[in-house]
Design a protein that fits this description.
The protein is about 35% helix and about 15% strand. A 6-stranded mixed β-sheet has the order 3-2-4-1-5-6, with helices on both faces. It has one domain: Protein-Tyrosine Phosphatase, Chain A, CATH 3.90.190. The two termini are about 25 Å apart. It is an alpha/beta fold. It has helices spanning about 5-10, 25-35, 55-65, 85-95, 125-135; strands at about 15-20, 40, 70, 100-105, 140-145, 150. It has 5 helices and 6 strands; from the N terminus they run H-E-H-E-H-E-H-E-H-E-E.
Length: about 160
């Protein structure tokens, strides 16, 4: 990465969101509220018990609403990606986010557990956030199910990832 690319990366903000049990209209409302123009689906498999969050359906629904979509299984947490896959996937996220406001999406709606000492509740926090920040991403903003946001130092949160 050149110096110019590294400096540009520090200005990049990436949002994260879990689809949880949202209906599509509310999910879309959250994306619009934060000006998201692209969703990086970081699930290992783009499948859900809620049909509107299955990859092909979600891609079409987002496209109809002028929001881009890409499934990046290289960033999935259920099947551990190889270091090369993870590196490629996180580089791809940064590439997209440098061009358009981007949200990482997986199924887990709460990024932190409710334990006395909160832990990473999903791989967006425990695996991807530290890598993205180490690569120079300026901010990660986690969109909560109620529409509030959370920002913190993900590297200090206990994680199984």
């Amino acid at each position: 990465m050149s110096v110019a690319e590294a400096n540009h990366c520090r200005t990049v903000t990436i949002h994260t969101i879990g689809h949880g049990k949202h209906d599509f209209a509310y999910f879309l409302e959250l994306l619009r509220r934060f000006g998201i123009g692209f969703v990086c689906d970081v699930r290992s498999v783009a499948r859900s018990r809620w049909p509107h969050f299955n990859g092909l359906v979600l891609a079409e629904l987002l496209r109809e609403n002028a929001i881009g979509y890409e499934h990046l299984p290289e960033c999935g947490g259920r099947t551990r990606p190889t270091p090369d896959e993870l590196n490629w996937g996180t580089d791809r996220i940064i590439e997209i986010a440098a061009e358009v406001p981007t949200a990482l999406m997986c199924s887990e709606s709460q990024p932190l557990s409710q334990h006395k000492t909160p832990r990473a509740n999903c791989h967006r926090i425990g695996m991807l956030a530290p890598i993205l920040k180490a690569k120079g991403v300026g901010r990660l903003v986690h969109i909560l199910p109620d529409g509030r946001t959370l920002e913190f130092d993900e590297s200090v949160v206990p994680s199984i990832w």
